[in-house]
Batch of 2 targets.
Target 1
Amino acid sequence: MTPETRMDMPAAEFRRTARETAAWIADYLEDPGRFPVFPGIAPGALASQLPAEAPRAGEPIEAILADFERLIVPALTHWNHPRFFAYFSVSASGPGVLAEMLAAALNVNGMLWKSAPAATELEQVTLAWLRDALAFPRDWFGIIYDTASISTMHAIAAARERADPDFRRKGASGRLTMYTSAHSHSSVEKGAIALGVGQDNVRLIPVDEAFRMRADALASAIERDLAEGRRPFCVVATIGTTSTSSIDPVPAIAAIARRHGLWLHVDAAYGGPAAIVPELRGLFDGVELADSLVVNPHKWLFTPIDCSVLYTAHPDILRRAFSLSAEYLKTAEDAQAINYMDYGVQLGRRFRALKLWFVLRYFGRDGLAAMICTHVRWAADLAALIDAHPDFQVSAPHPFSLVCFRHKSSDERNRRLLDAVNATGQAFLSHTVLRGQFVLRLAIGNIHTTWQDVRATWDLIQSLC
Ligand code: PLP
């Protein structure tokens, strides 16, 4: 194609700008801590600086990149910052970023095997590698969705399909009931809302003193619902809850699920990657009894967002829940190949397996395990420092890399402390409420974090309190 007929950016301009952009990315990732982790701006700060309309005529790429640096970057919360300890971190590791660049350039749509053979097959192979690295059952089938919320929604849909095959055609009967702990992620209820199960039909089972689902309360809730003529169909247990990283008693929950024919889904979105560490496998007792499990490489496996993996022992049921064969999507290979569009709501799919493949190969199983192990150790070391302080207390067990703690005084003081820490731009924490008390959360998991960052943040917290 001659330059005159080319509609896209000229190749020479692309090559030059790509080199500059790669250099910018390398500088950024070398020291993401040079930006304030939270920009300290108010809602609307960026929008008010941008024109109300898209430009009529195209603009030079230099002008766009200059505005990216001048306007966009300073208005970001920097998830790559080594002292980003809020929520659960997401790491833009070098190999993950490179794979994302390549996936964007290839721009394939993995809806069918035929539409992207390598994307489909790499997803199968990479998810088998991950499954084995995490010591999950070898017959589990894996599929990548964007987020754990969507993975869990698909698991609930499969559970519903097994319990009520007519639901798909006839819609809700209002009798299906599901169970999860009062500490499970909101995505479980959202999945029930989206699938027409209804929020009123989700039972939030109370937790014990360590914020774990009470198996006895689960059993009683199921008995009560059965007595009222309801149809219990699914239970969602969590390994690594969002508030405290607590671990539900999966073996006991699995036994109850089996007794009553419930689908057991395990939300290991955050905690799951820790199964790569042989010494931590004990935290995953009972997962082999699950019907499905979600683990997010984009949370604690150094893979850029988005990448969430759903494993299931029953791919046939998941497929039954979603496959529809439109004539224009039929291919000659349908009988021999996986068409991932059959296993979910979405048709088009990004080539997400590429970044997970890059990450697994670049760091290796041992490298990933070593990083996760180190984070768990730092969390324990930090908890020991907090416990040794006369005015602070650790508020929950810390089996993984999240430490929940509070100043022993009032909620108000803890709230002010959190705001003060985050206002410095030097570190970013989040909070939760446990037993009615405001608690600070410090989650370690970012690939850029060092022990010095954890220690300095603890010093900052003490100095501001
Ligand atoms: N499950 C757990 C335990 C989580 O902590 C989170 C988010 O932090 C989610 C699910 C939702 O994850 P996603 O943002 O991938 O939907």
Note: The chain has a mean pLDDT of 95.
Target 2
Amino acid sequence: MPQDFFHTPLTFLPSVGPRRAKVLAEELDLYTYLDLLHYFPTKYVDRSRVYTIRELRGEMPYVQLQGYIRDFKEVGEGRKKRLVGYFSDGTGTIELVWFRSLSAIRHLYAEGHMYIIFGKPVYFNGAYSITHPEIDDESKAEQVSGGLMPVYPLTEKLRRAGIASRQMRQLLYILKEACLPHIKETLPEEVIQRARLMSYAEAIDQIHFPESKEGLEAARRRLKFDELFFIQLRLLSMKRERKTLVPGLPFPRVGEGVKGLYASLPFDLTGAQKRVIREIQSDLVGGKQMNRLIQGDVGSGKTLVALFSMLLALDNGYQACMMAPTEILARQHYASLREYLEPLGIEVGLLIGSTKKRERRVLLEGLATGSLRLIVGTHALLEPVVQFHHLGLAVIDEQHRFGVVQRSGLWQKGESYHPHILIMSATPIPRTLAMTLYGDLDISVIDELPPGRKPIETYHQSESHMYEVYQFLRAQIAEGRQAYVVFPMIEESEEASMRALEEGVRRYTEHFPELKIVHVHGKMKPEEKDEAMRSFSSGEAQLLLATTVIEVGVNVPNASVMVIEGANRFGLSQLHQLRGRVGRGASQSYCILVTGNELGEEAKRRIAIMVETNDGFEIAEEDMRLRGFGEIDGTRQSGQQLSLRIANPALDGAMVQYTRELAESILTEDPELSLPKNSLLRHRLQEIYYERPNWSQIS
Ligand code: ADP
Ligand code: MG
């Protein structure tokens, strides 16, 4: 059967039709047989067990009960009208409730007849009830062999279009029966043997209709393997291709730029910085194009490492740029680079959205002629009018905020060659996730903070003890320190967040009439923001109140306290980023997490982790566990690009590692996948990724 069979539109599936097909497309993004076949259940309900009504207590999962309907009754009026069936099993009675098709339901089921019912009991007003239960005649009670019934995530619109849980199972059953004979193996026999995998067709069968817990486990393992293995195979072959085929500009010369910076530093580089600079340098002399990710906690000295790399480009006659995700961060980089570079007599430009026309013209001309060798900016750097004379290196800060497409824009800045790319990320991500998201990049880790930094002490304080927080701030400020107070993003709305900030400004001004307090938020004019930041940086203002805009980039070593109000509203990595704003000077620093008294389990856990540890990688691992893959700051988009249906690189770490090693060994033996035994792999890669031709040219 041709490939086309799987691309058959769902309207051709018996019992779907145009209306249901439309809803499936709109609600679940399912268009073809293949889409639906790959719509895996998110959980399974054990139907091997029949409960008794007496056993129901507290919060219940989906249960199965056996008994009879004693009586029906219609209650309520108009739109609130519903049908209630009183269902007994000899140990008690519960209510079955229907809001739709009342008379049809009533005719469908006979009073006094034995049924198996299935649904989620909800306790309300002293009794349990199940809304829209599934009901089967007792005689054909359990067709779900093994007792594991798949549950598919559905929406209200689907239910209204007549696709509830049961119908979805029926659709998948019909589809599966039609497809099974055509499903082809995706992996070569050798790989299946080596990894001891179930066949692909059997996995598809078992994931939707498991015969046993073991069968389901094997199916999940097989399908996760497929996803992770092909990602690794692709990433590693991209990486190989680039390393062997794409030429890079060689930077053999260490000149006055690098030497000058080295000589002018008032401190020694940390061991980790030296190691990473060596790694970068060996990339840059090699004649191959560099794609490297530097990971390191806030304050670990990434920017300085990036500066060394940029100066190496300059020493070899090329230009370099640094791209930041926000204007504030770009300005901050610009300011700190200038501080390093001014003594060396090296000019650096700043190009952001708000750069004035005349200034912009001068910058653009400098870049085009090559007289301006270094520039910092935002995505404004990607605009076509920005032409470099000879761009040798692009540094991208906090890359997860840029789309892959934008990164490819920088890549194209070098007409006939690719500039080297260095990506800095202050969001530590667990190793196996990094292997999945950035598996085609080389990764360097700065796992050491500059010496003399005292670990930040973190405390949790409830709102009702705010007075103590104020007292603490007062004492710190009396010792000459400064403090940040951050207010949470509320419901993703800039307005609501600003109101929280304004309320905060009033409150703090009232408590500290003697202090100079400044504040910043995302909607401020750049000049106002600058003025506030300048006043805080210079020590004139003691308190800086802000929405989360200070998350990245701000560097004021004298600030020793970070108060985070509504800390329960922040994600773990965000809290960690914010905390990283203090602890930059020589004095002891503190982070105070303020919350209400009532906290959910997850929020409690987040706060506890923050209080326990300062280690960004540990926090990242925990964040991933709490939130699941795809919800971590910035990785959502990447997760979508990977279009994972079943694997979770954070939780399936061992599988990531295993598939990577296997892919590596296959590519070592057969780099082009040209051996007959690997032709399946080559075809499958093309099939999965052909619609993204640009991938191999990105990042
Ligand atoms: P990151 O970019 O990783 O957040 P930065 O490069 O901005 O870190 O460095 C944070 C601060 O630490 C800066 O003030 C920088 O000058 C300083 N710094 C960097 N490396 C060292 C070092 N080896 N010793 C002392 N201070 C350092
Ligand atoms: Mg930095």
Note: Residues 457-613 form a domain with the Rossmann fold fold (CATH 3.40.50.300).
